[in-house]
Amino acid sequence: MEEIVNRVAQSALISLDLEELYPQGRRVLYDLKENLFQGLILKEKDFRTFLKGHDWAQYQDAHVAITCSADAIVPTWAYMLLALHLEPYAKTIVQGSMQTLEEELFRQVIDGLDLEAYKQKKIVVKGCSKLPVPLSAYTHIASRLRPVVASLMFGEPCSTVPLYKSAKG
After folding, report:
1. Which pLDDT does position 156 carry in this prediction?
2. φ and ψ at 160, to 5 degrees?
3. What is the mean pLDDT of the chain?
4. Residue 152: beta bridge partners?
């Protein structure tokens, strides 16, 4: 009987699972609609009074997305002022949806990767994940890795889709 050889395990492929890079921490959506007068306008004096009395410590180490779900015109300075009050406490602050927040968190993690470990290597970016890895994370990792890798693939080591191969020489 012939011995079964696991060629995937013996290959030079490096599997990169974006799920393993998933940024930990509590996510919070701050909706400015709660600060609107009659759900329509933001009164500066009332907003400033609210900001002074609000318990900002509840956002300690949280990743916060600031949005306004009401159909109202919110001045730009309101987002800025809110961010200034969150900044001493929140780990991350973005303007936008929870999706925007996830995209920013992954962008930060990917930008912080030491790409030296991937230099001239064959990389497979894993495709399946249980955690919500945004599509933008896959496009961002591809653009970050292309200048340094020998080849880039997507999928599982046993079944990959070739994406990029550097020129020889």
Report:
1. 84
2. -115, 160
3. 92
4. 123, 164
Show the DSSP H helices in 29-111 as ranges: 44-53, 76-86, 98-111
Question: What tokens were used for 51?
Answer: 């900001």
The 10s digit of each residue's pLDDT in 21-68 is 999 999 999 999 999 999 999 999 999 999 999 999 999 999 999 999
Does residue 81 contact residue 47 with C-beta atoms inside 8 Å?
A: yes
Q: Is 38 helix (H, G, I), strand (E, B) or coil?
A: coil
Domain residue ranges in the chain: 7-23+103-165, 27-90
Write the DSSP assignment of 2-31 as a string of letters: PPP--HHHHS-EEEE-GGGGPPPS-EEEEE
- Within 10 angstroms of residue 109's Cβ, the number of other Cβ atoms is 16
15 contact partners, CB below 8 Å, separation of at least 6: 124, 126, 156, 157
Q: What is the pLDDT of residue 167?
A: 85
pTM: 0.85
